[in-house]
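B., you asked whether I could sanity-check this one before it goes into the benchmark set. Here's the sequence:
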Amino acid sequence: MSGAALVGYSSSSEDEPGGSPGRSERGEPATHGAGLAQSSMPIPRLPMPDSVLNMFRDQEEEVTDDSSKHGGRVRNFPHERGNWATYVYLPCEIQEELLELRELLVSHARRYAVSLTAMEEFHVSLSQSVVLRYHWINPLVQSLKERVASFYRFFCTASQVKVYTNQHKTRTFVGLEVSCGHSQLLELVSEVDKVMEEFDLPTFYKNPSFHISLAWCAGDLTDKLEGQCLQELQEIVDGFEDSPFLLRFQWDQIRCRSGNKFFSFPLR
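And here's what the prediction gave me:
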C-alpha cells in the first residue's frame, strides 16, 4: 500500500554540474599511466539492468479490482496508493463447536438456493471501515489506546440469528446478534467515535445491531434468507448442544486493523 521511491544517483563526478571528463580537480589533464595518451572521448554509460528497471513496475501500475478473484466481493471504496482500509473490532476466539454450528447453518441455507461462504474469523465491529492515510495510522492508534484504556473485560451473549447486508448491498451476511452486553458495546463505540471525529472520519452506525457474522454471500439475498429459512436457522441454533454456554463470549481486548497492520489494546 505504500510504494518505495526509486532514487537516482550519479555514477561518478562527471555527472556533476561543471564537471569536465578527463580532468582532475585542479583542471589538469588526468593521467592514468605512463605513456598512455589521454582520450577526449566521453566514457560510455552502461545500460540499466532490466532487473532494476522492472523492480518497481508492479507498484506503478494501476490496481484493477476483479471481484471474481475475491468470491464476488466488491470494494466499498476504490484503491488508491497511500490509503489504508482501517476498522476497530472485538476479536472472537474461535471454538471448534462454533465452527460446527456455522457449518450446519451454511449447509441448511443451500436448501433455499443460497450458497454461503464461511467466515474465516469472527468479531464484533466497533467502527465502520474507513480510509486512513498512512501517516495518520500511528496518531489514530495512540488516540484509540488512550480512549479505551479505562475499560474492563466483559461478557456478551449472541444467540439470535439475523440477516444483514453491507451499506452498498453488495454482500449479505448471516450472523448472531448480541443481546446481553449491548450497553458496554455502546460505551466502547462512543469512545471509538470520538477518535474517528478527531481525524474527520465517519463514525459508527446509529442504533447499531452488534453481531458476529458467521457466513456471507455476494449480492443482496435477504429475500431468500429471511422468513422460513431464518426461522429454521434459529431452530438449529436453539437446538445446538450447549448453545447457551457456547454463545457466551468474553471480550478481553480491542483490535484495530489498518491494511496489513494489527494493533491490540488489552482491557483491564
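One thing to flag: The chain has a mean pLDDT of 82. Otherwise nothing jumped out at me.
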